[in-house]
Amino acid sequence: MKRAIILANILVALILSALLALQAIEEHDGIIEVAFRDAENLSDALAEQTSQTLNGIDLALTTIDAAISGAWRDGEDWPENLHELLVNRQQASSVSLAYFVLDGEGRAVGSSRSPDPGAADLSEYPVFKHHHDNPGSGLFIAPPRKGEVGHAANQWLTNVSRPIRTSDGSLAGVVAAAVSLDYLLGFYNALRIGDEGVVGLMNAHGRIILRSPFDEETVGTDLSESDLYREVLSKAESGRFERLWPGEDILRYTAFRQVIHEPTGEERALVYVGLGRDEVLAPWYDHMVFTGLLALLGMGLFIAVSALFWRNLVRRQQWEADRSERLRVLAQESAALGQYGDVKGLLQHVTDVASRLTSAHQALASLTRDTTYAQAEMAVTLSDKYAAWRDYDEPSDGSGIYHLVCENNQAMMLTQKELEAHPDWKGFGYSKDKHPPMRGWLAVPILAQDGSNLGLIHLSDKATGEFTEDDLNEMKQLASITGAALENLLSLQARDEALAEANTAREEVETIFNSISDAVQAFDHDWRFVYLNRQCEILLGQSQDYYQGKVLWEEFPDVIGTDLDHEYHRAVEEQTAVSFNFYYPAMGSWFAIRAYPHAKGLTTYLRDITQQVETEERLRQAQKMDAIGQLTGGIAHDFNNLLTVILGNSDVLVEELSDADEGPRLRAETILKAGERASELTHRLLAFARRQPLDPRPTDLNQLVTGMGEMLRRTLGEEIDIELVRGSGLWKAVVDPNELENAVLNLAINARDAMPEGGRLTIETANIAVDDSYAADNELQPGQYVMLAVSDTGRGMSLDVQQKAFEPFFTTKQKGKGSGLGLSMVYGFARQTGGQVRIYSEPDAGSAIRLYIPRAEEDTDVREAPAASSPLQSGTEHILVVEDDELVRRHTVTSLLNLGYDVTECANGAAALTYFDAGERFDLLLTDVMLPGGMTGKQVADEAVKRAPGLKVLFMSGYTENAIVHHGRLDPGVQLLSKPFRMADLARKVRGVLDKPSEQPEQD
């Protein structure tokens, strides 16, 4: 029996030991599995809370990027209100300590802490180096550090940043937020993880950002090269493991989950929850100890102990299952908070979740930021038990026990007795007949990321008894997630308001664009039209709807390869504003164009400057012609002096060699003819330079061109048909008729040369009235003019040839076929007459040259008959010759002596006056107009006449300034001998002046 009992006891002991061993193994595995599920549920909730927080920060960074990109992105100055923008963003955020912006070189250009960040060099900051070294980077969580300035000093924080990219993907800057780790720790520390448990946050690059319990040595550790990170953490979106962390000696059951941005799939961070193995297995160890003690007490108590063990195990498993289910519900319902677009709906969802988790008959959630409690937006969930109390009112002044939670931001959990005994409860006068009965009371604040109060979650009357610490911790987690969701929702509402303001601003901008005179166009990156203002619609002749979405180069293929094409592409490629002038042949117009690249494409401003360009071109041409005139006039002056000597001596040689051999006589005649041709050349040069003395008088142009008809027919030949179109009622024109005939003859010869195979030459006259507008465009005085036009059916001229046609020595004829002075002489003659000349021509369409000559106020046509040739006239009078050119003076003196005159000579005005001061008597003063020594010939003559009244004066000149010629004509009473002159001219003019009475002045 003893043996049987022993064997039975041994058998029972073996069986019991085996059962205990199997049960211990099963319980061990079950506890580990529960620990892993708890860690997974906590990591899910932690991932959702972290995602909400990062989404809120990312939204703020994106909003800042969008706000500054309208004013700056690729090279322009940062907006002046950057600091204000960052301050507003910081005030709207609760998790951040500050916002700041770095430029493309890593210099601080904006901060919410200070209006002037001082351009601090932060290029070595991880937030800048990461985006600089990774062109495709997105949201980046930098390694944690301690704050250095402001209210962030000595606080642990991490920088969350986004790059600011140009249109070509290069780094333009970084926008970042300094996020307080204390805020995140508030949620992490609320998780029940035990003394050996850890909760942590790791960025997407394997660096620990945050750890609870907080450990300064662990925060910031880089695990990217560790076996744990390479083999486990970086391999899956979520998972579990049981192994040691690098640098630690506590084994934990750890669950982790990647925090992924759902729209983009971007990995932003990794959260992990580790439960200490010893703490998780502590109940199991205790149970094993307890079981062993029971076994030592006796096999008799085995069944009771076993029953007690099983009951305890089932209860614990039920508690763990209930707790895991609540955590699952918390994680699942917390994720749903981000789907709400209105505060009321979100708060109602929070009350429903809180009521389900805690079995409270009453749940209330409120948003009290910037309002009193009575003005707060609330949501309430009441069970059927509270049907009789649904209409009760909360205090309207915010007093009572609720305000303690909101003001102190501290959770409160009270039993019914504690609540009714609380002074704030009693002080408000609550009683059982004034308020629903509450079996237990719990309230937790809803905090923003900056720690400020957003509202509260309030629960009362739990169905299963008083509220527990588990209820308190779960409500803290729910309140934390609710705070992040509320801030995100409020940020979205603020964004919508900002978009509405932006649309209003866009309408204002369009109003401004439509009010300006420039044509405004905007193109996207594919060169498609996205905007045209009204002025541009008028310019292009089509509405904005017609061009919307169409490609510029397809609509206007004729500008491809032009300056417009090159400048537009340069502006986009170099991201720099360009300004240039562009001529568009299709419109026949010049445009001043400014093009400004921006993040969305290119905006251009076009202004029609055709009239301005044409006016500037005419002014340039006039200035060029005046400058050439000054030059040619000076050359003609010296050349005329030389020709006077050449022609005078040639005349003498021809006369002296009249009986000589034919060879010397022909050479002398050749010299004379060359001098005559040179004289004609200088005459034309002076005409172009407007230095030819004119003798304008009222002239009938119809009579003049009629009289030229026969001469023109002989000159032009039979191949040219000449047609005269004489205007009826033609006014008299004030013009030098001789010079006008020369001008018409020059134009006719040019027309003949343009019609080598024959054609028609038309000479037309008409009356023209010039108004202010035409006068301003053509360098004329408004008034009445007589127009004389010479037209041909020849080759015509290109625009380039027309612009150079009046320049001296410019010709399109073959070498040796023309001097290039014909049109230049006509131009100078017309301008000196007070009129104008214009060319109207096209290639292969003939040419028309119109002369505009001022109308004469007198109605008589005074024409002098040409002087008849007569023998050389001599005399014996005393003549004073004043000439600075020695050759001219010698020739003149010799010629006068040969004519029988008594001659005295000098080289300047001062020497001439000494003769008069000495009492010498002269019959005639023959003086050059231009003299050295500070006195002109006119001044010498005036002084001489004062000393010798009745003295006859004759001027000689080859280039007249304003001494004796004004407005293109000789001064009244002035006698002029033009250089070059021959002996016959000198004899006739001297004799004519000496024989004329002084009171009857004559012009020649």
Structure in words:
The structure is a single chain. By secondary structure, the chain is of the alpha+beta class. The chain folds into six domains: 36-177, Beta-Lactamase, CATH 3.30.450; 340-494, GAF domain (Beta-Lactamase, 2-Layer Sandwich); 516-608, Beta-Lactamase (2-Layer Sandwich); 614-686; 697-854, 2-Layer Sandwich (Heat Shock Protein 90); 878-995, Rossmann fold. It is 44% helix and 22% strand. The chain contains 27 helices and 35 strands. α1 (2-69) runs antiparallel to α6 and α17 (610-656) packs across α24. The protein is rod-shaped. It starts with a helix and ends in a 9-residue tail after the last helix. Mean pLDDT is 78; it is low at 687-691, 816-820, 860-869 and 1000-1004.
Which secondary structure elements does this structure contain, and how are they paired or packed?
Blueprint: H1 2-69, H2 82-91, E1 96-103, E2 108-111, H3 126-133, E3 140-141, E4 145-146, E5 156-165, E6 171-180, H4 181-188, E7 198-203, E8 208-212, H5 227-233, E9 238-243, E10 252-261, E11 266-276, H6 277-297, H7 302-336, H8 343-358, E12 360-367, E13 377-382, H9 402-408, E14 412-414, H10 416-421, H11 423-427, E15 441-447, E16 453-462, H12 469-515, E17 519-523, E18 529-532, H13 534-540, H14 544-547, H15 552-555, H16 563-574, E19 578-584, E20 589-598, E21 601-608, H17 610-656, H18 662-688, E22 697-699, H19 701-716, E23 720-725, E24 733-735, H20 737-753, E25 759-770, H21 772-778, E26 783-792, H22 799-804, H23 822-833, E27 836-841, E28 847-854, E29 878-882, H24 886-898, E30 902-906, H25 909-917, E31 924-928, H26 937-947, E32 952-957, E33 965-966, E34 969-970, E35 976-978, H27 983-995
Parallel strand pairs: 23-25, 29-30, 29-31, 31-32, 32-35
Antiparallel strand pairs: 1-2, 1-6, 3-5, 4-5, 5-6, 7-8, 7-11, 9-10, 10-11, 12-13, 12-16, 14-15, 15-16, 17-18, 17-21, 19-20, 20-21, 22-24, 25-26, 26-28, 27-28, 33-34
Helix pairs in contact: 1-2, 1-6, 1-7, 1-12, 6-7, 7-8, 7-12, 8-12, 17-18, 17-24, 18-23, 19-20, 20-23, 25-26
